[in-house]
């Protein structure tokens, strides 16, 4: 069996508890690190003074945890709407500043579906992503786009138009299986130069689905995590506990080893009534490969 040495993370929001309680839970279930939403509420950069940032970082350190990444996903149409982009780009930069202060150089995000034709939406996304890429490059950091909305080959062709790896990839194998039907193992090799963070999640695709219905598109309903969770429970695809879906983890983890990926394997659980039990099982599932 593939042997992996990657640290294990968990998204604190998956516990559906306040941040501090979720941090304690993450430690209890055996995680090495945590990924935290930093978009609104107490973790919004605008709501965190320098003092509060220092205090939070020392609290996380005291638990013996690291931050694997922040989630800076601003929802809606990602960066497809050129009129909304200046404000979103600005906020994304502030989330990256916060990430660096908390000890991580990765912010994960959804930018919206990359169109197949180079149209106005494509150029709006490209312009916003280029600005973010240059900012992240200057800090040795990354905005990591989550895989799923488009096939990995197409995502790579978009990333190749940007400067450096300031905009990189947060690889989520389940999204590929559930939405585009793309092969996550091949996707790892395709996107190998860009992968800076991963999600460990499993799922099945029950029937074909238009990615625009899931992730939104200008002219479609905007994306929201609540909507995706609802679809993953009762819709065209289903998120399931690790090992029960269509992600071939033996081959997936081997692919990550092959490309020399050393970063976090971060557990995300967006559905189900017993998140803590599911996350505990997920940690045990990954540890079998160690």
From TrEMBL:
Residues 25-288 form the Xylose isomerase-like TIM barrel domain. It holds the Pfam family AP_endonuc_2. Keywords: Isomerase. It comes from the Bacteria. GO terms for molecular function: isomerase activity. InterPro entries: IolE/XylAMocC-like (IPR050312), Xyl_isomerase-like_sf (IPR036237), Xyl_isomerase-like_TIM-brl (IPR013022). Transmembrane segments: none annotated. Coiled coil: none annotated. The keyword Isomerase applies. SUPFAM superfamilies: Xylose isomerase-like. This is Sugar phosphate isomerase/epimerase. It comes from Paenibacillus profundus. The lineage of its organism: Bacteria, Bacillati, Bacillota, Bacilli, Bacillales.
